[in-house]
Design a protein that fits this description.
The structure is a single chain. Helix 2 packs parallel to helix 5. It is globular, with a radius of gyration of 16 Å. The chain contains 7 helices and 8 strands, in the order αββββαβααβαββαα. With about 210 residues, the chain is an alpha+beta fold.
């Protein structure tokens, strides 16, 4: 997919996430890896009203070279995309249920959402590290996100929201959606003694779809 098509896809998927309540106001940001750099949603932009032509473009060294000024959380995307060379996109949301889990979980936890369904394991994986709280826009979190992302497709920022990667932009969006629905399911079943997938079943899913 060429850059123009990726810009259109980013705007379309951003609008879909916004319309379904996965982000509100100017919350959340998205990045996509290009052969010659990166695309990123602009600072203070609404995912529901992105103009493809104004989406930020960054050089391979992450300097701003086109479009509007990028999100102030560019470092968050850099942390994941440099840790996961196979990743082609990153989606950061403030989605309600995943953020709720991030308010309940302890920093350092690696499985705040249990493997309740195969789809969570297939999209997100075995691990979902919880990164301790930092003030939004604080670049000090970059190294911690980077380390956590080396072994996980998604990380959960304490009291903030999820950061999710995928091989493609569509993959990253689907994984972010699955994470939100899995967080909702985990909260609905909290304390009910729900049956989870066994370690062997998780291993089988990762061997087949991971």
């Amino acid at each position: 997919m060429d850059e123009a098509a990726l810009r259109d896809q980013l705007a379309m998927l951003g609008a879909s996430l916004f319309q379904r309540g996965y982000s509100v106001g100017t919350a959340g940001n998205i990045s996509v890896r290009l052969p010659d750099g990166y695309l990123m949603t602009p600072t203070n932009s609404c995912l529901g009203r992105l103009d493809p032509a104004r989406i930020s473009k960054l050089a391979p060294d992450w300097s701003h070279i086109g479009g509007d000024k990028p999100s102030k959380e560019v470092f968050m995307h850099r942390a994941v995309l440099t840790a996961r060379r196979e990743a082609g996109a990153v989606v950061h949301l403030h989605s309600t249920y995943a953020t709720a889990i991030g308010c309940l979980a302890e920093p350092g936890e690696t499985a705040p959402i249990p493997p309740l369904t195969p789809y969570f394991v297939m999209r997100v994986g075995r691990s979902l590290p919880v990164v301790r709280y930092y003030r939004p826009g604080d670049g000090a979190m970059e190294s911690e996100i980077h380390e956590a992302a080396k072994g996980a497709k998604a990380v959960l920022l304490a009291n903030h929201g999820p950061v999710v990667s995928g091989k493609t932009l569509e993959d990253a969006v689907h994984a972010a959606e699955e994470l939100e629905e899995s967080a909702r399911l985990a909260l609905l079943l909290r304390g009910a003694g729900a049956r989870t997938l066994t370690p062997a079943q998780v291993d089988d899913l990762l061997a087949t779809f991971g």
